[in-house]
Amino acid sequence: MKKELWLKADTKKWKNKKEKITTALEQGYDTILINDNEVEKTRELGTIKTASPGDSGDIKIAGIKGEGDGSKTLPTSPKSSEDIKKLENFEGETAEYIIIKDKKHEEFASQIADKVDYIIIRGEDWKIIPLENLIAELQEKDVKIITGVENTNEIETALKTLEVGSDGVLIETNNIQEIITASEKIQQLQEEEINLIEATITKIKPVGMGDRVCVDTCSLMTKGEGMLVGSSSNGLFLVHSESIESPYVAARPFRVNAGGVHAYLKTPGNKTKYLSELKAGDEVLIVNKDGKTRKAIVGRSKIEKRPLMLIEAETKNKKIKTVLQNAETIRLVDTEGNPKSISKLKEGDKILVNTEEKARHFGMEVTETITEK
């Protein structure tokens, strides 16, 4: 699940935070917590979700200047909270900001979770234990936990507590480099690692003309990177990007010539999509020879009629196949991590693949028997 990254920028002087907000925009932050009278100024800098105590933002926050900061006595229940009452008629998303000073604040956060879309919590003396308790108590509730952090060293703890972590972090800093590093850290922590194993090529057969898909992304790929594609969702081949120079055609390092329109493609969150479904703006998963992954955005999905080649391979306990364009620039990845053109591929060659035991339904893993031939 995607972790959210928020920037706290509700200090007094606008000129002191404009650079912070611009940096957050450039780094792909999800939300800016800002003063209500500065929401429009923030939107003028770029498109981003805003959170504020008033009605101008996309998310209305209670407690940011009241009960949540510990300066007021906590209400006896969420129903008696004056701040929460202010949220009841707001049409957008809502949040409660709570500084956890003691067990009562933690209990209040748990109770109020039924009333809002987000709880934003920041610990003082105790940080990890209250977060653990709230994650455990609220995991079945429809509320997101955003953890306040003061530096990037706290991010990993917040996002990995109890192996689940909070749903995001709110960073409060005046350090521009920390704002940049926080974004990089979130991306690193969300990288999936995929188990690639050896498979042996058992058949290579031209099968005639068909529709194939080129996936053009908004990212540049390097040697050893590509995408996982296959005719069955539980058996995917690492198809190399077109990042290799050739005497006959220029490199297209943003592209994976991924194969027939019927094929599955691995996407973020351990899901799959049919190649025929891909469109501009979709997220796909770039995978390297070591199984390290990163997300990329589709800029264009290009379908054209081309001659196709059936590739079959076998692991220790599974036979898998895919259909790729029959061209020298289409490459799989061998067990040394090197791209190997299918024009030079032969039976007995070893390549990298990803296999699963479970089947899929609408791209999601399911435990049921499905046979794909």
TrEMBL record:
Residues 2-182 form the 3-dehydroquinate synthase N-terminal domain. Catalyzes the oxidative deamination and cyclization of 2-amino-3,7-dideoxy-D-threo-hept-6-ulosonic acid (ADH) to yield 3-dehydroquinate (DHQ), which is fed into the canonical shikimic pathway of aromatic amino acid biosynthesis. It catalyses: 2-amino-2,3,7-trideoxy-D-lyxo-hept-6-ulosonate + NAD(+) + H2O = 3-dehydroquinate + NH4(+) + NADH + H(+). One of its GO terms (biological process) is amino acid biosynthetic process. Its EC number is 1.4.1.24. Residues 199-373 form the 3-dehydroquinate synthase C-terminal domain. Residues 48-81 are annotated as: Disordered. GO terms for molecular function: 3-dehydroquinate synthase activity; dehydroquinate synthase activity; NAD binding. This is 3-dehydroquinate synthase. The gene is aroB'. It comes from the Archaea. It is an enzyme of class 1 (oxidoreductase). It holds the Pfam family DHQS. The keyword Amino-acid biosynthesis applies. Belongs to the archaeal-type DHQ synthase family. InterPro entries: DHQS (IPR002812), DHQS/DOIS_N (IPR030960), DHQS_C (IPR056179). Keywords: Amino-acid biosynthesis, Aromatic amino acid biosynthesis, NAD, Oxidoreductase.
